Amino acid sequence: MTGITLQYIPYNTDVAFLGIKQQVIGMLHYRIAFFTHVYTALFVLPAGFIQFSPYVLSHFKKLHRLSGWIYTVFVLLLVAPSGFVMGIYANGGLSSQISFCVLALLWFYATLMAIISITKKDILSHRKWMIRSFALTLSAISLRAWKYILVYLFHPAPMDNYRMVAWLSWVVNLLIAEIIIFKFIHHAKINNRLVVTHSDRRL
Fold first, then answer.
1. Cβ atoms < 10 Å from Cβ of 165
2. How many other C-beta atoms lie within 10 A of the C-beta of residue 91?
3. pLDDT tens digits for range 45-70
4. In terms of Cα–Cα distance, which of 106, 108, 91, 84 is closest to 34?
5. What is the C-alpha end-to-end distance of the chain, expressed in Å?
6. Three-state secondary structure of 18-65
7. How far is CA 155 from CA 20, 147, 162, in A?
8. CA 165, CA 170: separation in Å to the nearest integer?
């Protein structure tokens, strides 16, 4: 992702992905949305990964909080809104446009709920929503992975491939996120209840 982002620095409007977006890159609001989205990815992805490091959480709580605020502020104020604008002009027609706009809305909502839950000291809910939020963040990576997988296996036409990965990139991620939430967090919740019950018995 860093390599992809560096192609557009300092300000290139005719390289890589933008080579096929020349019909819309002339619009100021699209340029603002695109470059905002691309540049902030350099901060959002690392900040998100830090959030899921048990070592950082245990030994560097301030770093965990700082990266959390960087992640959520960037997603809510910059990345998700710019992604929605880009989604309106997505390649592949209405199907892709709906997919990317829904992705941006769900991404915003999941991240907002993660913030709301932690302000209420609801750590379990915070973890659930952060898992969902970061699963959607990782769609930037899974989209490119699915493109290669589908081309290798099925050789679809370029636009057909793009329409499929527009949905696969985040729907599959969310399904995996829900499995993680159910298997690990639900399991941890049950274990916590068992520990509390055992403690009560000893008392």
1. 25
2. 15
3. 999 999 988 899 889 999 999 999 99
4. 84
5. 54
6. HHHCCCCCCCHHHHHHHHHHHHHHHHHHHHHHHHCCHHHHHHCHHHHH
7. 20, 10, 12
8. 9
